[in-house]
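Async update (no meeting this week)

Hi team, since we skipped the sync, here's where things stand on the single-chain job. The sequence we agreed to prioritize is pasted below, unchanged from the tracker. I ran it this morning and attached the output directly underneath so nobody has to dig for it. Comments welcome in thread, and please keep replies under the output.
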Amino acid sequence: MSGKNADEDAVPIGEAAGRSGVKVPTIRYYEQIGLLPAPARTEGNRRLYGGADLRRLAFIRHARELGFDVDAIRTLLSLQDRPEQSCAAADTIARARLAEVRERIGRLRALEDELTRMIDECACGRVAECRVIETLTESHRHGSLA
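Output:
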């Protein structure tokens, strides 16, 4: 084995993917963009991932599930790697993500209201009198939904 992440319990990429819940191509991508350090390699040049790599992959996966973008994850990983510093930057990143989520919830609620209104006003008669079709046509004409 060679490389800086060599460890006795290191596993090949397929097993790392299974344990971390991150797909093999995604693991390679994270290495390529620097979210995951280059792994140790076997004499046959196969990647090997140790416990620290698996924990980092789990961290990245969870951050992605929460909707953090790659740049935010990169910053969060940098903060995690230097635990003695203030967590103000992590707090700022989390607050920005929360604001995005709340904004999206607001848009989804507006969408829910519009769909409910369309359905409630539907007479279930002919298409010529269909409120769903009429509302969609009006929205397109007026550009009311973005």
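Quick observations from my side:
The beta strands are 11-12, 40-41, 47-49.
The two ends are 54 Å apart (CA to CA).
Reply here if anything looks off.
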